[in-house]
């Protein structure tokens, strides 16, 4: 019986040799309305650095656009957050206690040069990515706690992934883009890492570039413009719900615009189709142009919070100043600091009203990891004073600052990177509010690189009191930073002794919960662990989270093919992939 | 002349060495390196950072890095850009070319505006026209060109709204550039660079015009001008041949400085107009601490400065009969 079921499953898998179909339920308009052809005109603020997927380091790079954003074994369904098969023909067979994944590939997939995409391409990509001489940014994603994940070819259309441990991120780890073995394989075999690094520089001939995804580069003018054409082979395995091949568009052109003002000017004057507004001023100008009839665009402010936040971290390792070390290690002190943070004021003054208060390390956009029972220490100066008096700061000195029983003043230096006006304003607001309860904050913006040196320093005596900075990114799969939460990791910045040991039982518990959640494949069970972790984190307040920016959307009325409005957010964006389902009305 | 040039060349070697050391170590003095921002990336592990540091050669002491670099520079290799993983010249050269177009038009506009205005101010001293042009010049002198560029940009967008004219707001070419013929391409680029070039030129004209006016005034009262007039030379010849030729000598001496300026681009105006010149790229590389790109470009500029000064010395001997190199 078991054998029969297995056989049935295999034949079913083979029978699903159909293209990937974007579900109609995701989209605002029916697929039947879509027209083929046309061009979308976008912009980017920084120049593209390379076409090489293995040496590329920036966000929004061309290799990413041609690869990871439109190709990969699985993708997340924005309606549920679940992974669904994309380049995989079906969900994988999971064995070995959740550590082995056998994935059947969707048949008939081809690279932009017409060569078939096979298991070899995933294996070669993996091999080059994990070679430390290549220096690929993707290298770390193929290791779990320094133990490698292995990728093996079973046959031309079957891959086998073996994880050293069960991993919550298994599906996203497996979802990397396959780069062509027939291009990179021979070079790697002959000249190794050096050969790979020398390939596909930014001035490479576009004709030699082969893409697995929806777009392939056709021309690049340094600092000016990139033109991408649709990979016609992509439509053979990616369809809309009406059965039409994707992408609909012929061309996606990207202007390189160094300056935000020029970017906005190009959008306002109708020369580009999309714009990513970040400031209240931008939104106001776009709205004015739309209201004045000069710009025919959709504008939706405050779609969702972004996956980013600013925070303040206190240094627990100050062996040269035991007074400060003691108060920084005091949970009540940090809770008081959270009470002092006037997050609404920060949003109004520093972010022009366009932001979201943040209380934990999981950004509010990850809705599935926000829990009602996570402690929050909201703006409340009276509560802050109470907490500070609990730890011995009951009286004020002549200057109006709190002092302990021995007369020592409660003061510390808060640093941020100079030149970041938002952070400079957040810091000033915090300083002013702190003064109201009698805490003296010496707020000093310093050079960014110095600041990072201080933050990432290790040892018993690290050279700072408190730092205001921000981090961003992450996924909604397990949104706790892998080198932020566990003790001893690189950005576990509040407590970084030389040996990386935890100091408090809560830290130890958080480290344990982090790895436990990271090694849980079941979504509901993982969220339960997340709930516990958030609770401990909220109580301990190792980092005081302040505010995050919001995600705003604007695009010209020419464009169709976006998600239903309720699916938009900073994580899934407004449309799948990169303009894969976008059409010109 | 040949001996003079040879001596110039030999003299320039220690200058170049010293300059290269200064450039390299001043960049090194700043805290952090190319990989500092990566340390704030939660997705990159310390081991991987170490790998990258090794592969970029950043684990070596700065002195060793300098000697490796200078050895390559002598062989004509300015090093590899960290960001692009490509030779510095291959990255910078297309940008330098773009800047050259813009700066060439700027120079034409600059001299076309500044010389007549300076001459006019001197010849028609204290007339209403002179006062107006002086007033405008003073105003522009205190105006940073990037700010002027922002105002112009705002003006273009408003003008487009009002008229619907397709005035480019930035960049160097239109979307359909590749489909255009030779003249069409020339015209397209001209359309894009006219306003930025004008903005830089207008911003710079003030200083030059003021000094030229002063020089002209001085020479207009000189004996040889009076002699020329009394010989019956026409006013045009007196002003443009006798006076201007003398008044312009200090500027010819300064021409050497213009050569590196040619490749250094039009500064922040390039940024504001989203022009793909050298400045936006250099700003990026300074921001990213892309050591060899910054150092390579700077050493190129220093070399051009030396060459430019030699050329302006030669030109000076052509313009000024008192100077002879023999």
From TrEMBL, chain A:
The keyword Signal applies. One of its GO terms (molecular function) is peptide transmembrane transporter activity. Gene3D superfamilies: Dipeptide-binding Protein, Domain 3, Periplasmic binding protein-like II. Belongs to the bacterial solute-binding protein 5 family. InterPro entries: Peptide/Ni-bd, SBP_5, SBP_5_dom. It holds the Pfam family SBP_bac_5. The keyword Ribonucleoprotein does not apply. One of its GO terms (cellular component) is ATP-binding cassette (ABC) transporter complex. Residues 1-17 form the signal peptide. One of its GO terms (biological process) is peptide transport. It comes from the Bacteria. This is ABC transporter substrate-binding protein. Residues 83-475 form the Solute-binding protein family domain. Keywords: Signal, Transport. Coiled coil: none annotated.
Automatic annotation (TrEMBL), chain B:
GO terms for biological process: transmembrane transport. Gene3D superfamilies: MetI-like. Pfam families: BPD_transp_1, BPD_transp_1_N. The chain crosses the membrane at residues 12-30, 100-123, 135-157, 193-212, 247-271, 291-316. The keyword Magnesium does not apply. The keyword Cell membrane applies. It comes from Deinococcus psychrotolerans. It is a multi-pass membrane protein. Keywords: Cell membrane, Membrane, Transmembrane, Transmembrane helix, Transport. Residues 96-312 form the ABC transmembrane type-1 domain. It is found in: Cell membrane. Its main location: membrane. Belongs to the binding-protein-dependent transport system permease family. GO terms for cellular component: plasma membrane. This is ABC transporter permease.
């Amino acid at each position: 019986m078991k054998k029969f079921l297995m056989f049935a499953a295999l034949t079913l898998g083979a029978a699903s040799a159909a293209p990937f179909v974007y579900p109609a339920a995701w989209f605002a308009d029916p697929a039947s309305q879509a027209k083929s052809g046309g061009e979308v005109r976008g912009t980017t603020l920084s120049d593209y650095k390379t076409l090489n997927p293995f040496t590329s380091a920036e966000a929004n790079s061309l290799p990413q656009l041609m690869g990871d954003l439109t190709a990969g074994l699985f993708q997340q369904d924005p309606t549920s957050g679940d992974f669904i098969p994309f380049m995989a023909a079906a969900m994988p067979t999971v064995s070995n206690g959740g550590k082995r994944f056998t994935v059947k590939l969707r048949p008939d997939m081809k690279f932009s040069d017409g060569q078939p995409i096979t298991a070899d391409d995933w294996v070669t990509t993996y091999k080059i990515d994990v070679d430390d001489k290549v220096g690929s940014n993707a290298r770390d994603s193929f290791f779990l706690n320094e133990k490698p994940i292995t990728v093996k070819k079973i046959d031309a259309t079957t891959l086998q992934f073996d994880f050293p441990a069960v991993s919550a991120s298994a599906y996203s780890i497996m979802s990397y883009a396959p780069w062509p073995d027939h291009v990179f394989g021979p070079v790697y075999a002959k000249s190794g890492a050096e050969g790979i690094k020398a390939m596909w520089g930014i001035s490479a001939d576009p004709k030699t570039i082969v893409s697995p995804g929806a777009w392939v580069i056709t021309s690049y003018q340094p600092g000016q413009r990139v033109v991408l054409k649709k990979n016609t082979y992509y439509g053979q395995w990616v369809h809309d719900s009406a059965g039409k091949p994707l992408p609909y568009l012929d061309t996606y052109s990207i202007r390189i615009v160094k300056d935000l003002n020029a970017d906005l000017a190009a959008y306002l004057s109708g020369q580009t189709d999309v714009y990513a507004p970040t400031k209240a001023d931008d939104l106001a100008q776009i709205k004015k142009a739309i209201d004045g009839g000069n710009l025919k665009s959709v504008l939706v402010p405050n779609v969702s919070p972004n996956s980013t936040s600013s925070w303040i971290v206190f240094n627990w390792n100050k062996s040269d100043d035991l007074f400060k070390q003691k108060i920084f290690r005091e949970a009540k002190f940090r809770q008081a600091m959270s009470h002092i943070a006037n997050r609404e004021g920060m949003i109004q003054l520093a972010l022009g009203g366009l932001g979201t208060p943040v209380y934990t390390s999981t950004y509010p956009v990850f809705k599935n990891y926000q829990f009602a029972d996570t402690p929050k220490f909201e703006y409340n100066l009276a509560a802050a004073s109470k907490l500070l008096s609990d730890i011995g700061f009951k009286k004020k000195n002549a200057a109006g600052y709190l002092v302990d029983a021995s007369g020592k003043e409660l003061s510390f230096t808060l640093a941020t990177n100079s030149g970041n006006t938002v952070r400079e304003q957040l810091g000033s607001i915090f300083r002013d509010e702190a003064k109201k309860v009698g805490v003296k904050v010496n707020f000093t913006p310093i050079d960014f690189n110095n600041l990072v040196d201080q933050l990432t320093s290790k040892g018993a005596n690290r050279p700072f009191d408190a730092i205001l900075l921000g981090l961003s990114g992450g996924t909604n799969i397990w949104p706790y930073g892998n080198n932020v939460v566990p003790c001893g990791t690189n950005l576990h910045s509040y407590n970084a002794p030389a040996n990386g040991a935890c100091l408090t039982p809560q830290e130890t518990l958080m480290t344990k919960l982090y790895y436990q959640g990271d090694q849980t494949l079941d979504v509901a069970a993982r969220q339960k662990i997340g709930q516990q972790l958030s609770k401990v984190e909220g109580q301990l307040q190792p980092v005081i989270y302040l505010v995050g920016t919001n995600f705003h959307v604007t695009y010209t009325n020419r464009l169709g093919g976006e998600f239903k409005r309720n699916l938009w957010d900073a994580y899934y964006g407004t449309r799948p992939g990169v303009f894969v389902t976008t059409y010109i009305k | 002349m040949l001996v003079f040039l040879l001596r110039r060349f030999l003299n320039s070697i220690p200058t170049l060495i010293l300059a290269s050391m200064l450039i390299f170590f001043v960049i090194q003095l700043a805290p952090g390196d190319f990989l500092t921002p990566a340390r704030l990336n939660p997705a990159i592990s310390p081991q991987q950072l170490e790998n990258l540091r090794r592969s970029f050669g950043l684990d070596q002491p700065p002195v060793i890095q300098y000697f490796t670099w200078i050895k390559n520079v002598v062989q004509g290799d300015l090093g590899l850009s960290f960001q692009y993983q490509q030779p510095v010249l291959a990255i910078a050269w297309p940008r330098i070319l773009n800047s050259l177009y813009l700066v060439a038009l700027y120079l034409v506009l600059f001299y076309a505006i500044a010389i007549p205005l300076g001459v006019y101010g001197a010849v028609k001293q204290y007339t209403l026209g002179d006062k107006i042009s002086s007033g405008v010049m003073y105003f522009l002198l205190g105006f940073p060109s990037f700010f002027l560029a922002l105002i112009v940009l705002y003006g273009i967008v408003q003008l487009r709204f009002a008229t619907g004219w397709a005035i480019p707001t930035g960049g160097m070419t239109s979307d359909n550039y590749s489909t255009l013929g030779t003249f069409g391409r020339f015209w397209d680029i001209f359309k894009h660079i006219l306003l930025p070039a004008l903005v830089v030129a207008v911003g710079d004209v003030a200083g030059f015009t003021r000094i030229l006016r002063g020089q002209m005034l001085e020479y207009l009262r000189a004996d040889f001008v009076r002699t020329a007039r009394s010989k019956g030379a026409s006013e045009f010849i007196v002003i443009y041949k006798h006076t201007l030729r003398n008044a312009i000598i200090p500027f010819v001496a300064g021409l050497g400085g213009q050569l590196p300026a040619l490749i250094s681009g039009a500064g922040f105006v390039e940024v504001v107009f989203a022009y793909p010149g050298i400045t936006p790229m250099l700003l990026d590389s300074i921001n990213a601490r892309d050591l060899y790109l910054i150092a390579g470009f700077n050493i190129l500029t220093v070399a051009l400065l030396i060459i430019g000064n030699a050329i302006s010395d030669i030109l000076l001997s052509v313009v000024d009969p008192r100077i002879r190199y023999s």
